[in-house]
Amino acid sequence: MWAIGLAVLVTGIVYALILLAIAELFKVFADISISTRATLNQVIDANIRKVETENKQ
Known about the structure:
Elements: H1 2-56
Transmembrane segments: 6-26
Keywords: Membrane, Transmembrane, Transmembrane helix
């Protein structure tokens, strides 16, 4: 019985660690998405300002 209990405990800990790793991956992908969107907005704003200054000349 001790062996079965120990196996269940170890399996539970391993599964919990796997789930935590997956949750961290989701957070990383969300951060990458937010960063990419912010960078894209900066590039678009810079291009708009560039076109506006070219049109004034």
